[in-house]
């Protein structure tokens, strides 16, 4: 189940963190107050992803933070992950929900207002909305900017958790919050922080006080 008022969604991206460091970094993210944790592992071997996921799931469970696997519904089901995150080209929510099973979280990436509306209509449990800014974590994906955040929050974010994503860091955060974002995903600024738990706490506190 999703937490009732999630603010900070952290992604453990194996492009930034080695499989060896995954547990330690996850502990830091959880300590800093991450409300959801996703494992994202573009281009990695399935066996490696399964191994890392199986080591992170107990940590998340102990912290009562949902563990979401990016991209692999069958693997998520097999590992009894709390949910799966899919992109625009990964099929229908209903089909993915059938694979991961009842009670599991299914989230969708959206890159426009219309995609956000469609994900809501389709029954996604939450959405990502972005990238707000160009970001090396998702190369080649055009930035969508900040101007549609208020309408997205009003239309979609009032019905399900909507996480703004892409280029959000401790410097851009005030701009993002002032543009109306209530929930965010952060990848590189957390994973590259000198003190990951303190950085996570900064994002979380800023969102809680906004
Ligand atoms: N989807 C849209 S932007 C993005 C994803 C996975 C990457 C966000 O990463 P960062 O490092 O927080 O900009
Ligand atoms: Mg995907």
Automatic annotation (TrEMBL):
Binding site for Mg(2+): 71, 90
Pathway field: Cofactor biosynthesis; thiamine diphosphate biosynthesis; thiamine phosphate from 4-amino-2-methyl-5-diphosphomethylpyrimidine and 4-methyl-5-(2-phosphoethyl)-thiazole: step 1/1
A single MF term (Gene Ontology): magnesium ion binding
Positions contributing to 2-[(2R,5Z)-2-carboxy-4-methylthiazol-5(2H)-ylidene]ethyl phosphate binding: 135-137, 167, 187-188
Alphabetical GO biological process terms: thiamine biosynthetic process; thiamine diphosphate biosynthetic process
Cofactor binding comment, as recorded: Binds 1 Mg(2+) ion per subunit.
Enzyme class of the recorded protein, top EC level: transferase
Catalytic activity: 2-(2-carboxy-4-methylthiazol-5-yl)ethyl phosphate + 4-amino-2-methyl-5-(diphosphooxymethyl)pyrimidine + 2 H(+) = thiamine phosphate + CO2 + diphosphate; 2-[(2R,5Z)-2-carboxy-4-methylthiazol-5(2H)-ylidene]ethyl phosphate + 4-amino-2-methyl-5-(diphosphooxymethyl)pyrimidine + 2 H(+) = thiamine phosphate + CO2 + diphosphate; 4-methyl-5-(2-phosphooxyethyl)-thiazole + 4-amino-2-methyl-5-(diphosphooxymethyl)pyrimidine + H(+) = thiamine phosphate + diphosphate
Keyword hit for Kinase: no
Residue ranges constituting the Thiamine phosphate synthase/TenI domain according to the UniProt record: 8-189
Signal sequence, start to end: none
Residues annotated for 4-amino-2-methyl-5-(diphosphooxymethyl)pyrimidine binding in this entry: 38-42, 70, 109, 138
Pfam families, per database record: TMP-TENI
A GO cellular-component term linked to this record: cytoplasm
Classification via InterPro entries: Aldolase_TIM, ThiamineP_synth_sf, ThiamineP_synth_TenI, TMP_synthase
Keyword Amino-acid biosynthesis in record: no
Cofactor: Mg(2+)
Family: Belongs to the thiamine-phosphate synthase family.
Annotated function: Condenses 4-methyl-5-(beta-hydroxyethyl)thiazole monophosphate (THZ-P) and 2-methyl-4-amino-5-hydroxymethyl pyrimidine pyrophosphate (HMP-PP) to form thiamine monophosphate (TMP).
Record protein name field: Thiamine-phosphate synthase
